[in-house]
Design goal:
With 296 residues, the protein is of the alpha/beta class. It has a single domain, classed as Rossmann fold (3-Layer(aba) Sandwich), CATH 3.40.50.720. It has 8 helices and 13 strands. A 7-stranded parallel sheet has the order 3-2-1-4-5-6-11, with helices on both faces. Strands 7-10 form a two-stranded parallel ribbon. Helix 1 links the parallel strand 1 and strand 2. The longest helix is centred in the middle third of the chain and has 21 residues. The chain starts with a strand and ends in a 5-residue tail after the last helix.
């Protein structure tokens, strides 16, 4: 297969790039390296079946560098950080909605009929009921979440209007190698990094907010299962996660227990983040039924 992966040097994008390159597919990876890191794909750069293009999917010039006969597109490129979206909502919408529109148009005009769009559990906002299935209201309250709702529904519109065949994949949180451990990184990676430096984890608020975490290899399996599926199982959205929840405080305590030299270390609590989601837990019944998905 000839595959395009946007956000190819990011956390999940690099794992998908690695999988399909090692599986002998021809992979074109696009990333502007705003969130991604070239080190994530450095072992692929010398391979003949991996073509890396530094470019911005929200701008026209990158598309002239791409072939038009892809068998599949994985659209992961996005501004993914809630705090950054609050500081700069215009940038967030330009990338997340504008970039998605350009990818959809590229696919439509070139008759590419397998597109996997990386939506997010953040589109749901805090759980109004649990576990959260695909019918849960889309009620995100921060610019990042709303930008992803807009892109999510844009993909659905292209399915309905143009019969494009976009699978809208709503992964809940995931973790693993190559996740950023500073700045706008993932909480597990950040906590581990701090504790290994003999610094206590920093928790925003009381730490009771909870998330549903799966390992990054399960996320790769989820995307691959959708790629190989017949039909359009994610036409209106499909959840992937563990189906289990854990609080931020429990994560901090676990990291301290297993990683800290000083077992008396205590997490530091600071003021809550504005409009932070308080609870996310996936109902993955649809993925189990349609795709026999089972996180390991």
């Amino acid at each position: 297969m000839k595959i395009l992966i946007t956000g190819a040097a990011g956390f999940l994008g690099s794992h998908l790039s690695e999988k399909y390159v090692l599986d002998k597919h021809l992979v074109y990876g696009v990333d502007n390296l705003m969130n991604g890191n070239l080190n994530n794909v450095r072992t692929l750069l010398h391979k003949k079946n991996f073509k890396f293009i530094r470019g911005d999917i929200a701008l026209n010039d990158v598309y002239s560098k791409l072939p038009n006969d892809f068998d599949a597109i994985f659209h992961l490129a996005a501004q993914i950080h809630v705090d950054r979206s609050i500081v700069n909502p215009e940038e967030t919408f330009k990338i997340n909605l504008g970039g998605t529109l350009k990818i959809l148009e590229f696919a439509r005009m070139n008759d590419i009929d397998k597109i996997l769009f990386s939506s997010t559990s953040e589109v749901y906002g805090s759980a109004e009921y649990a576990p959260m299935d695909e019918s849960h209201p889309l009620s995100a309250k921060h610019p990042y979440g709303v930008s992803k709702i807009a892109a999510d529904r844009l993909c659905y519109t292209y399915n309905e209007t143009y019969d494009l065949g976009v699978d809208i994949i709503r992964c809940f949180n995931f973790f693993g190698p190559r996740q950023k451990d500073t700045g706008y990184g993932g909480v597990i990676a950040i906590f581990i990094n701090r504790v290994l430096q003999n610094k206590p984890p920093i928790i925003y608020g009381n730490g009771k907010q909870s998330r549903d975490y799966m390992y990054v290899k399960d996320a790769v399996d989820a995307y691959d299962t959708v790629l190989r599926s017949k039909g359009n199982p994610g036409k209106n959205g499909i959840n992937f996660g563990s189906g289990k929840e854990i609080s931020i405080k429990e994560i901090a305590d676990m990291v301290i227990k297993h990683g800290a030299k000083d077992k008396k270390m205590q997490a530091i609590h600071v003021e809550p983040r504005p409009v932070e989601v308080q609870r996310l837990i996936a109902d993955i019944s649809k993925a189990k039924k349609l795709l026999q998905f089972k996180p390991k």
